[in-house]
Amino acid sequence: MIKGNVDISHITYEMLDELLFDSPTHVEYANGLWEEIGVCIPSYPNNSAIVYQLFGDACPPWGHHIKSLFDEKILYSTVTINLLKPGNFIPPHKDMFYRLMSFAKDNNIDLHDKEPVRINIFLQDHKLGHFFEVENEVCMNYKKGDYTIIRRGALHSVVNIGNENRYTLQVSGFVDKGIFL
Question: CATH number of 4-176: 3.10.520.10, 1.20.272.10, 3.40.50.300, 2.60.120.10?
Answer without folding.
Answer: 2.60.120.10
